[in-house]
Amino acid sequence: MALIFIRGILMQLVMQEEVEQLQLELQNTIAMYKQVCEDLVQAQNKHLTYVKFSVFSYFILVRFVVEIFHGLREEVMTTSARGHGLMSRVKQLEADVPSIEKAFFSNRSLITH
């Protein structure tokens, strides 16, 4: 029973590490998103100062931005799905811990008598 208890603790530690990794990935994705926005504004301002965009140039720029944001959205959705899956596993572990502890402590009291 002690092994089951220890295994549960180890699984919680692994899941906590995975949650932290997901948070880091999400932060990196958001940072990339912000950088793309800043780069786009800088590029637009620079080009508007020197060259007037034609309708076609705007179309190309919009397509480029849409492709980048679509990729970022996919990354966010994937990270979010992994996070939801991890949270459901954590909730299941949290639900199982009391019964594991009860079984562990009840067997321990039998062994010590």
From TrEMBL:
GO molecular function, one term: actin binding
GO CC terms in record: cytoskeleton
InterPro entries: SCAR/WAVE_fam
Listed GO biological process terms: actin cytoskeleton organization; positive regulation of Arp2/3 complex-mediated actin nucleation
Source species, domain of life: Eukaryota
Gene3D superfamilies per UniProt: 1.20.5.340
Similarity section: Belongs to the SCAR/WAVE family.
Protein name (database record): Uncharacterized protein
Species for this entry: Clitoria ternatea (Butterfly pea)
